[in-house]
Design a protein that fits this description.
Its main location: cytoplasm. This protein is an alpha/beta fold. It has one domain: DsrEFH-like (Hypothetical Protein Ychn, Chain: A, 3-Layer(aba) Sandwich). A five-stranded parallel β-sheet has the order 4-3-2-1-5, with helices on both faces. Helix 1 runs parallel beside helix 2. The radius of gyration is 14 Å and the shape is globular.
């Protein structure tokens, strides 16, 4: 059994990175491996935007990430710096920056590159999408 940390750099739309990362996670879990954390970086932070409204014939990546997290107790971590630059805010970030609203789901936590480094130290492999 291997332990993985997954880094998602691609956005929900305009890239297949998120879909490929989710598919990898599902396959790895089905084969008895462990996912320590999924770290969303660069445009990958858009996966946590609760306000995305995909068309009925599109895959709802946001909901799929939330389901993966709740079903397998996997932490979903946004790089806070990347998220703030892209307008993805948690309730705390909204308050700290004087914004009236936030759009990041509760399933996603904000963190820094330190969380990625800790995950890399605990994992057997880092897989980047």
């Amino acid at each position: 059994m291997s332990k993985f940390i997954i880094q998602v750099n691609g956005s929900v739309y305009g890239s297949t990175a998120s879909f490929r990362a989710l598919s990898f996670c599902q396959s790895a879990l089905a084969n008895g491996h462990q996912i320590i954390n999924v770290f969303f970086y660069q445009d990958g932070v858009t996966n946590s935007n609760a306000l995305t409204c995909p068309a009925s014939d599109e895959i709802d990546m946001h909901s799929n990430w939330q389901s993966l997290s709740s079903e397998h107790s996997i932490s979903l971590t946004n790089c806070v710096s990347a998220a703030l630059r892209r307008g993805v805010l948690s309730p705390q970030d909204a308050t700290e920056n004087g914004k009236l609203q936030w759009n990041s789901s509760d399933a996603f936590t904000m963190g820094g590159l330190g969380e990625l480094v800790v995950g890399i130290e605990q994992a057997d492999r880092l897989i980047s999408f």
